[in-house]
Amino acid sequence: MSRALSDRRKFILNMARGVGLATMGGFIWSAFIDEATAAKLTLRPPGALKEEDFLKTCIKCGLCVEACPYDTLSLAAPGDNKAIGTPFFIPRDIPCYMCTDIPCVPVCPTGALDASSVTTDDKLDINSADMGLAIVDEKSCVAFWGIQCDACYRACPILDVAITIEYSKNERTGKHAFLKPVVHEDACTGCGMCEHACITEDAAIKVLPRALVQGKAGSHYIKGWDKKDEKRLENAKEIKTVTEISKQKAADSLNGDLLEGLY
Amino acid sequence: MKNVWNNYRYLFFRRFTQISLLVLYFGANAWGWKMLQGNLSSSTILGVIPMSDPYAALQMLAAGAVLASDLLLGVLVVALFYFLIGGRAFCSWVCPINMVTDFASFVRELIGMNRLTGVKQPASRKLRYWVLALSLVVSAIMGLAAFEFISPISMMHRGIVFGIGFGWAAILIIFLFDLFVLKNGWCGHICPLGGFYSILGKFSLIRVKHNEENCTLCMKCKVVCPENHVLYMIGKESLPVLSGECTNCARCIEVCDDDALSFSLRSMAQNKKTGE
To answer: Which residues of A touch B165 (CB under 8 A)?
Structure first.
C-alpha cells in the first residue's frame, strides 16, 4: 500500500519533523545545561554577581584569570564538574591573596565581576569582597581538642576581626585553656587564607559559598531588643488566621478516620 | 616546488594565522604577554582595543543579561570587521576547530570514506540556522548563553590557553563525526557560530571571483571546497561567490591551475547586475 505522498502532506511532514527535532534538541540541550550549571560548591572571584546572574553575564574570556598575579583563578575545563569556562578558585591549593588593587575585577568586560560591589567611598576595597564564608569543623580542629594552634587566626588578612580567638577553660586537664577560633560572618570575605594555612590533613576550616552555609530566619521573626529591627513592626498589618476547631470529643480522635482504611 | 607553494599558499597563511593567534593567546596566560589577552569569547589587543564574540553577546541578550559598554564596544569591533570586510573568514582563518575538521576532511578523502558514503549527504546545510535559532530559544528559557556551555570551539580554544581537562574529548567527537558520520559535518552543517557569521558576513567586501573564460572544468575547486554549493557558477558564468556561507578559505583559488578563481573586492556595479 505504498503511494506517493502529496506535496501538501510532504510539506506538513517536513514541518512536523523540523519542529519535532527542534523540540527534542531543545529539551536535551536545556537538560544538559541545567545539570552542567548545578555545581554549588564553586567559589567565584571577588566582586562576582550572585551565582544566577554571574552565569548569565560571564562570557568566559579568562581575563580575570590572566590578571591574577598569584594564579589563584582557573577557568573550569570539562571534567572539573563546574559550570564550564567560568572562573573559580580552590583555596586549599591557592587562596585569594586579597590584592588591594583587585586586578581581576576591572578587567572584566561584561560586569560579571562588578567593581561597584567591592568599592567603598569610591575606592576599591578588597575587604568588602564576599567570595564565601569560612566555617570551622570543631571535631577536627585541634584547637578544640585543647592543642594550641592559631594558624587560621594568624593567616586571616582581617586579623582579629574576621576570626577571633575565644578563651575557655579546659575542664579535662583542669589547668589549661582552649583557644578556639571563631569566624565572624559579617567580616569574613571568603578569601580562604585560613583554609590554606590550616594544619590538619584535610582542612578543619573551609570556605564555602555563603548560600550553602547561611540560613535564613524569615521576616516574621523580629528582634524585640533591636531598635532597628523593631521598626519593621511600624508598618506591619494585622493578619487574622482562623483555625477550625473540631467538634468531636477528645477521645473520638482515636476512633476517627485516622485508623480508617487500615483494617 | 613552486607548484606545491602555489597550490598550498593560502592554506599555509591560514594555518600560520590560526596558530599564531593561539600562541599569542597562550603567551598572554602563560607568560603575561600583552598582545592578545583573553580568548575568542572576549579579548583585548595590547590591553586597549576590545574584541568580543557577537554571537555570545546575542545569546546573553536573549538570556536577559545586561550588556556592559566594554562588551558592546568589543562586539562592534568584531562584528564590523566581518560585516564590512572579512565575511565568514573567522571560520577558516581564526577558528581552531577548522584545523580539526580540515584534518578530518583530509583523512576522509585519504581512506576513501567519501566513496563509501557516496555523494548524497544525509543532512541539510540549513541545519545550522535551526541550531542558531534554537540556541537563542534555549538561552531565553534557561537564562544562560546556551551555546557557550557546549561549544567545542570555546572548549578547544579555552583549553589550549587555560588548560584543557577533558576538552580533548570534545575535539575528538568533532573529528570522528566529520570523519565517519557527515562530510564537513560540524563546520558545514551544524555549527551555529558559522551560521551566524554566514548571515553577518553576507554583504562583506572580500569575495572569491570566478572567471569562466579560463575554466577548464577540472572541478578541483568543487572537490576541495568545504561549502561546495557556493561554487554553483563554476564553468557556467563569470560571477563572484556571493553566498555568505563561503568562508573565504581560498582553497579553490590555490588548487585552480587555470587562473579561473581569484580574490576580488565586491564592487557596486557587480552588485547591481546580480541584484544583490
So the answer is: 76-80
